């Protein structure tokens, strides 16, 4: 943009306003900003600012209802499939939970699935969705309604903390395993965020090398165990984070055998939760202070499509179901190439 007849003051005003507005509206501002740059010769700086403000107000009001982008509708046949799957999964959850008034949270794992599928589930009443890959989560969060509760359930790298923290509708990260990652998240979260980001610590209950997570606790675990240190760090040093609970991905062997006998991974996570709660309370971190847990206890995220019924019966609060709702996923390469 040249100074020309607009004057130096108007030029500076235009640049400052649009840069600030672009940061505030993120992805949605890109197209409009490019349009304004291309047509600045017919717009004064004041008119540009007015246009930006009018568009921003209209867009933000609309996005609360319909999300940030335009999502293609799932076919009637696909919507019917998703309705049937969701209904079946929710019925099984209710049956596994029994007469308890507490209903476990269903996180629909939507990795590799199109935004149209998620939108269809959203319109059927589903609100919690899980994604494994940062870029995929960023793209979908930018297209879908703002009141979706996104759960990041993939491997967490500290260098991705800033990107994840920039997603306004990110509800929880279930895979935190280090003080470094927790600190990076706390630092990256914007000051204007309305509530702390929920954090679940991943525990490797099976001891498999292929699984991420910290070692579980036992009643005789040392006070400086990794899991305990991380929990204390989040409570005392990370005010923008809320320690919500623990998460595990159990072994396939235990998952397949869970119909015939108690799942050892689920039992281990429950015992770890009890041990950690006891240590925190003894150290003066009362759940009543609101810095950890929900209703006085840490939540347990365990159970997937093949074993979520057993997980709920074992005390699970959050289940992560993908294939049971969306069907078999394509391989990553195929999903990426097809968009």
From TrEMBL:
HAMAP family: PLP_homeostasis. The modification N6-(pyridoxal phosphate)lysine is found at residue 111. CDD domains: PLPDE_III_YBL036c_euk (cd06822). Residues 86-330 form the Alanine racemase N-terminal domain. Keywords: Pyridoxal phosphate. This is Pyridoxal phosphate homeostasis protein. One of its GO terms (molecular function) is pyridoxal phosphate binding. Pyridoxal 5'-phosphate (PLP)-binding protein, which may be involved in intracellular homeostatic regulation of pyridoxal 5'-phosphate (PLP), the active form of vitamin B6. Transmembrane segments: none annotated. NCBIfam families: YggS family pyridoxal phosphate-dependent enzyme. It holds the Pfam family Ala_racemase_N. Belongs to the pyridoxal phosphate-binding protein YggS/PROSC family. It comes from the Eukaryota. InterPro entries: Ala_racemase_N (IPR001608), PLP-binding_barrel (IPR029066), PyrdxlP_homeostasis (IPR011078).
